[in-house]
Backbone:
């Protein structure tokens, strides 16, 4: 009982933290997409009228809902992506908090989720997954690899897992030869290579599957405009967080079938 209360408390604060982070990252990603050389600098402003936003305008989720998605100063609609990024940040942090609880390993997965959210937003805005974010994601794993006292077993796991994106890369290259067009974004393949440092080979398959299902669902729900390429990164990222948190029981069930 006491433990459940502690987890609920932890999840509440992680939801707040995740929403604030989502808001911040969305702001930085949209500045980055607009070509701002310093996306992290300066106060938050309204994208339409440029009015500096006060504390009242910066309460994640609630500011958006109270103002019905409109700027207080100019009445212009605030992009729904702002709210989506805040909710995604909160959801990802709550998932990770509920799964890992208050322990050292939680740190690794919070940074994991935060970086995946950041690269989802850049992929969404500009169809680009920056190499810098992928490098940070790999570096985070390297740091925690030592902090968590991992050893030979984890290295072997990672080597096995790396075979999945490697096989996929070969498949994509062959398909591109045959089709004569891009079959999968280069950034998505690179992302899978980095995810292999965190997830086992079976979990990577599950991540790919979850990413495809989520992507198809999204396309079905939004009517997926023909001709416009949908970014796969955000769905792959969501699939990775879900797999990291809930993949274990799913895979146990699946392998139990044989
Ligand atoms: Zn405004």
Residues:
């Amino acid at each position: 009982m006491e433990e459940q209360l502690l987890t609920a408390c932890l999840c509440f604060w992680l939801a707040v933290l995740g929403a604030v982070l989502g808001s911040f990252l969305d702001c930085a990603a949209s500045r980055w997409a607009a070509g701002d050389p310093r996306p992290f600098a300066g106060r938050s402003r309204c994208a339409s009228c440029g009015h500096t936003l006060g504390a009242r305008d910066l309460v994640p989720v609630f500011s958006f809902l109270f103002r019905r998605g409109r700027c207080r100063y100019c009445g212009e609609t605030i992009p729904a992506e702002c709210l989506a990024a805040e909710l995604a940040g909160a959801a990802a942090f709550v998932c990770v908090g509920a799964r890992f609880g208050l322990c050292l390993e939680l740190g690794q997965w919070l940074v994991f989720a935060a970086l995946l959210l950041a690269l989802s937003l850049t992929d969404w805005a500009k169809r680009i997954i920056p190499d810098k974010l992928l490098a940070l994601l790999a570096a985070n794993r390297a740091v925690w690899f030592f902090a968590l006292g991992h050893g030979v077993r984890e290295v072997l796991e990672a080597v096995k897992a790396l075979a999945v994106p490697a096989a996929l890369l070969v498949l994509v290259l062959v398909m591109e030869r045959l089709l004569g067009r891009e079959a999968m974004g280069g950034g998505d393949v690179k992302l899978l290579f980095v995810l292999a440092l965190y997830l086992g080979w079976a979990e990577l398959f599950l991540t790919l599957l979850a990413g495809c299902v989520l992507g198809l669902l999204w396309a079905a729900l939004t009517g997926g405009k023909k001709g416009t390429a949908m970014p796969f990164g955000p769905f792959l990222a969501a699939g990775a967080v879900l797999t990291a948190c809930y993949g274990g029981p799913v895979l146990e069930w699946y392998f139990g079938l044989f």
User: Anything to note?
Assistant: The mean pLDDT is 89. The chain is about 70% helix and 0% strand. The CA atoms of residues 116 and 231 lie 14 Å apart.
